[in-house]
User: What shape does this take?
Amino acid sequence: MPGAGTVREMAQEHDSSGAATVSRVAEAEIGPDLRQQVQALLQACFPGYPSRSYFKLPPHFRYLAMTGGELAAQMGVELRVIRVGSTVVRTFGVVDLCVMKSARSHGLARRLLAELTEFARVCGMDFVILFADDDRVYTRNGWAHAANPCTWMKIHDHTTMGLARAADTGSLMVKAVGPQAWPQGEVDLLGHLF
Ligand SMILES: CC(C)(COP(=O)(O)OP(=O)(O)OC[C@H]1O[C@@H](n2cnc3c(N)ncnc32)[C@H](O)[C@@H]1OP(=O)(O)O)[C@@H](O)C(=O)NCCC(=O)NCCS
Assistant: This one.
């Protein structure tokens, strides 16, 4: 892993995603070179992505998959306490999961999602949540749609625009990693939508 900031380098697994080396890295410790690689991957994978390594705000940490010295995949993760109805839950939020074109369909996204699920269990999180327009890779890996209306802080280009209140995003997906069932009621994201 180039640059400082590798929190933990996972065992190199020879699964169907090949010999990618997956690391979990604290966002604050990602140096300029690696940050540039992350930005390039995000811009290649998401048309219209802004000229930076995050969409609204930087995530708290990322999973990075390297193959042959090249960044092949990335997944940002938010550590977010949210409120669902009257229940406060601890969540990890998946942000901007992407795999470079030439490495797709070999289980790399599945591997990153599995690593995060295991880490969430270790950390005693309640849920791993995300917002997805295309649910395929997530339904395959244990996420389910949740129809709760959501409130969040709207941000555009580093400017707070106000609040979106009780909106049906149509894209919220949740996976329980503890014993608790996903609660009913409005979701207050206590921050921006990721
Ligand atoms: C979605 C994505 C991360 C999957 O990565 P991957 O390593 O190929 O995933 P896996 O090999 O574990 O699983 C592949 C499955 O993901 C699903 N998938 C494909 N494109 C997808 C997409 N844009 N969104 C969600 N799921 C997708 C398909 O079911 C695919 O199965 P197939 O290979 O039989 O067609 C990758 O296609 C990608 O980076 N797409 C562009 C960015 C993007 O849309 N990210 C999702 C943001 S919500």
Remarks:
- The radius of gyration is 16 Å.
- Residues 45-46, 97-99, 104-110, 132, 134, 136-137 surround coenzyme A (CB under 6 Å).
